[in-house]
Amino acid sequence: MADRFAGVAAEPLAAHAGAPLAQRAGNLVRLTLNRPAEHNRLDPADVDALLALFEQLATGGGTRALVITGAGEKTFSSGYTLQAIVDELDARFERMLDALETLPFPTIAALNGSVYGGATDLALCCDFRIGSPGLKMFMPAAKFGLHYYPGGLRRYLTRLGLPAASKLMLTAMTIESDEMLRIGFLTDLVPRDALCTRVDAYLDNISRTAPGVVAQMKQHLHALARAGLESEAGRAAMASMADAYRESLASEELRARLARLLDEKRRPQ
Prior knowledge:
Blueprint: E1 11-12, E2 21-25, E3 28-33, H1 44-60, E4 65-70, E5 75-77, H2 82-87, H3 91-101, E6 107-110, E7 114-116, H4 118-125, E8 128-131, E9 136-138, H5 141-144, H6 150-160, H7 162-171, E10 175-176, H8 177-182, E11 188-189, H9 195-207, H10 211-226, H11 232-249, H12 252-266
Parallel strand pairs: 3-4, 4-6, 5-7, 6-8, 7-9, 8-11
Antiparallel strand pairs: 1-2, 2-3, 9-10
Helix pairs in contact: 1-3, 3-4, 4-6, 6-7
């Protein structure tokens, strides 16, 4: 990634295997999702570790920017592991993403590879998303029979607009890097060998800004983007979304669809 992290030791956020790795170079932090052989999927223990880190960064002061990337060159992340959706999906995942979204400094998703499922929402929580040609993304919730949680639908709608959010959420179609840029999922699209340089350019410019003003403007930009959802009708819609999410999470259809997917993954190819 950025040259400024060269030589900085990467420390796991927790003791379990595959825990995300963190590096701090001065007032900058880089976070690496660390299961490259499994598309950098996130386990419940990862979610707990990430939530603890984001809460610490939010209150600890001294951080100017956070970069999130994935290990390897194939996948940024495939999101929450399927078995965890069956057994352990609860409010922690959404709380972790909300904590990332509201960090009081700029955040950058450096997409080293394609991005799927809940990881698309993790990327949308970041202020900037930088990727390269050849990336793909899709949101499979509708295929699972899962009504997506309110925070994720809100981010899709406010970041990407209704047409793009509808296409991704209601069809589960795969889109590629050019379309990801066109709909605003990607902030920048650069050649793969220029990804580190582009991330570094963001960090250089962020380092020249006034952190207090940046924190205030980020808070106010998000508040303005949410203003329509904060009306009485918007709050009622969010409450209805939450009810639908909980209902689908407990449904037999979700369990049956995920069971079929897990069975397909276990079959010898």
